[in-house]
Amino acid sequence: MRRLILLAVLLLAFVGMPVFAADRLEEQVSEIEALAVTAHWRESNARIEALASQADALSTGQRQRIEYVRLRNLALAGQLTEAMEGLAALLEQEMPAALRIRIYGTATSVAANIEDWSRAFTWLNEGLSYLPEAPEQSHTLLGTASYLHTLVGETEKARDMALRAVQAVEARDDPRGLCVALSEMALAEDHAGNFRAAEAWRRRQIEACTHAGDPVFTAVGRYGVAKMAAKQGRHDEAWGWARQALAEFEAAGYAAGAWSTRLVLAESLIVSNRDLDHARALLLDTLRYYREHESNLAIAETEHLLARLAERRGDPATALAHLKQAMSASAAAEADARARRLTYLQVEFDTRMKEQQIALLEAERELAALQVTATQRRQWLLILGIAGLLITALLLSGLLRRSFRERRRYRWQSERDSLTRLYNYQQVRKLGEAAFARARAGGRPFSAIVADIDLFKQVNDSHGHAAGDEALRSLGAWIGEVVGERGIAGRSGGDEFTILLDADAAEAGTLLQRLRDRIEPITVFGQTFGFNISAGVCQDDGGTATLEQLIHDADQALYRAKRDGRGRVVCANDAAAAASAPAASLVVVGSGIEFGRHVNERCLSEIREAQVVFCLTDPFALAMIQNFRPDAINLGAYYADGKDRRQTYREIDAAIMAQLRDGKRVCAVFYGHPGVFADVPHAVVRKARAEGIPARMEPGISAEACLYADLGIDPGRRGVQSMEATHFLHYDRVPDTCGLVLLWQVALSGDLSCSRFHAEREGLQALVDKLLRWYPADHEVILYEAARLPIETARLERLALRDVPDARYEEYTTLVILPLGELRGDPAAQGPGTAPADDPPG
Q1: Reported pTM
Q2: Which one, 121, 149, 613, 633, has the greatest CB density within 10 A?
């Protein structure tokens, strides 16, 4: 009996052992998955290595789950390519739908991170097809789908998918899933430009991810709050959030998040103007990382911050260099975005084609079944065979027609403006070039029309943007009706339209009259309003070099129509228009100190209407001018280190006079006030007038006007004596010590060679030695530099006169000498009712 009991016990032990071992293995696999989900990926890797010795005891499903965790950890560690190839191999195996959806989600994200967009979108579409089999995993793939659609500009679709993911995971009470879904929702709102909403989602994400125990996504949430705070101008708050995020990213070993956070930290330091050296170190390290990873968009953002830092430090040359690098990286990023968008559209198209192919294969299978049946029922063979062929032909015809329609729709969308349904800017130029060449070769007249809606901004302001859109839509329809097949019509941008015709200016004018007669009031949301258009027409006279020049001349005619009162058509070829525009003229305008704030509408009009524009301004003003006048000529190219500036001035004179003698209307833009401390503007105006060419100078805002505002000085209180520093130093000039004395270009004191661009201590000391004749050594002076951008602040550095030689200088630094002593009354002028000596009238 005891032997039987012992045998039973041994049998039970041997039977129970594998069950216990299998349960323990499942616990270990689940623990590894849990560690990976909570972003403790290093510890999960250690558990995987420890479990390697028991690999033979694992089931196929357990091995697949562990391999998935290992590959996910590889991706988190930055080995994206190896991780992607491993995930691709894993997807070739048979597995449950829930696990397959998780793998598809990770594989899609990894492919997107290394910009293998074709594979990313293909995997995403494949994964979405499995959602009905495992709805409990839908939030995983919907979040990834939201992220990818954000990258290709489908922001509304991205927000919809992210919201669906949040709703799905909230219904299941899944803390970890809610953490990830909230992150994707915040990202979608961020890319849609809804910064407040994005910040609110990020704060929910921090709470959910902290509850779920996921340090990486918690850090992502803090980074998101920091980024949104910076977007809304709260940079001190952004700094605090970003520091927390950086510490958590570094602790978790998540490199990509740490580098993104460093950008927010650097931006906060630059905006708050503190610890700029640390900001520069952060940006240079970050730029090196992103260049190694060829992340163009991040490179552009980093270069922009470096440009702002250089501007903050008063280094415009470095700032301009960084801006050029930023523009180059932005162009590359835009090219990447276009490629990504094209890949998305291609995958969408390929997916639809595969669905059509499946439908075709099913039809062929049905046909084969009919043929098998026909062998058994010969009486029906002919009828069923013909019917099958007809069905196949109809299916093929339908599929081909559908494919043709899809291709035609995609092409139409790429060539048309979505609002007006006319051609877009690029297509008008493309078709216009060919039509212009044909007309020129055939000796036929060819005309360009540029038209826009008068006071369009008032339509938007008074009736809303929906009314503005309806006005554009209606005008586009009327233009399409009037032009028809006789020309090329498109929307150039905003409320401006371009029409190209194989016709002369008279026929173009007739067409415009028909268009104006066709315009009628429109009603939007119960409000009825009308509008007029202005137009410029230019006919090719055989001397027009390019289509672009012809359109430009028509655009200039449109400007004349606006200037002459709107609601009219002006022809660039009219003799009257030619007579009203002199063959040659010169206007000199000032850009002010801050171009965007100081330049007036008249100066902008002169810049737009001139045939030739010369610029001698700061880099930011030059970039803004070249944005709407790409042909603007930079006169700064004439300057060089060691070169006599007087020679530079005469070369600039010669360049401007050459265009005037060639019969061109010239606008010369100079920094600040064009007539203050400026040699070239006065000289070229005199030369032009001496040759009988109309020339005038528009007043501008000078640095002196900015100085009074920044220092809070009323020049009427004590009077002002304003001189160039070298002029004061080398001539017998006596300062009025009771009034304000301004010495300009103090950094160049004593430079008679006119070849220096930097300060020299000897010249500054000579200036101070002369001033010590009238002022004590400890007399307070101010070094002043006007702000050139709204984000800058003026330099107002107060110091003693004796310390002037050792200060820091820019070429444009001004020395402000404050009044010394009190005003004394003139005894000869004293009498009844005379104001006190220390309180002058006014």
Answers
A1: 0.37
A2: 121
Residue 327 resides in a domain: no
The verdict on 183 and 164 lying in the same domain is yes
HSE on the CB side for 545, CA within 13 Å? 2
Range of the domain at 781: 704-824
Task: Specify whether 696 is located in the same domain as 711.
Answer: no
Please report whether residue 625 resides in a domain.
yes
Read off the pLDDT band of 6 (50, 70, 90): very low
Contact between 799 and 809 under an 8 Å Cβ cutoff? The reply is no
Residues 331-387 have pLDDT tens digits of 887 887 787 777 777 776 766 776 676 777 777 777 777 777 777 787 787 888 888
- Residue 15: what pLDDT? 31
Q: What is the DSSP string of 421-475?
A: -SB-HHHHHHHHHHHHHHHHHHT---EEEEEEETTHHHHHHHH-HHHHHHHHHHH
CA angle 501, 504, 505 (to 5 degrees): 95
Give the residue from 213, 248, 282 where a domain finishes: 213
Active site residues: 645, 649, 671
User: Same domain for 351 and 482?
Assistant: no
Same domain, 173 and 151: yes
Residues 324, 680: Cα–Cα separation, whole Å: 29
Q: How far apart are CA 165 and CA 188, in angstroms?
A: 12
Same domain, 431 and 563: yes
User: Is residue 134 included in any domain, yes or no?
Assistant: yes
Range 152-155 contact pairs with CB under 8 angstroms and sequence separation of 24 or more:
152/337, 152/340, 152/341, 152/344, 153/337, 153/341, 154/344, 155/188, 155/191, 155/192
Same domain, 388 and 458: no
- Collapse the DSSP code of 100 into the 3-class scheme (helix H, G, I; strand E, B; otherwise coil) and give the result: helix
Q: Domain end: 670, 701, 732, which one?
A: 701
Phi, psi values for residue 442, rounded to 5°: -90, 0
Whose CA is closest to 71, among 97, 99, 39, 45?
A: 45
Q: So what's the pLDDT on residue 194?
A: 87
Using CA atoms, how far apart are residues 586 and 680, in angstroms rounded to an integer? 13
Of 1-15, 415-429, 548-562, 672-686, least confident by mean pLDDT is 1-15
For residues 503 and 371, membership in a common domain is answered with: no
The answer to whether the CB of 208 falls within 8 A of the CB of 174 is no
What is the per-residue pLDDT across 605-652, written as a single tens digit (0 to 9) for each? 888 888 899 999 988 889 989 888 888 999 989 988 888 888 888 999
- Say whether 571 sits in a helix, a strand or coil: strand
* Residue type at 237 in one-letter notation: E
The mean pLDDT value of the chain amounts to 82
DSSP class of residue 834?
P
Q: Name the residue with tokens 């052992």.
A: 17
Into how many domains does the chain fold? Answer: 6
613 vs 606: CA distance, rounded Å: 9
pLDDT reading at 667 higher than 90: yes
504 lies in a domain?
Answer: yes
Q: What's 518's domain CATH number?
A: 3.30.70.270
Q: Which residue has the higher pLDDT, 674 or 149?
A: 674
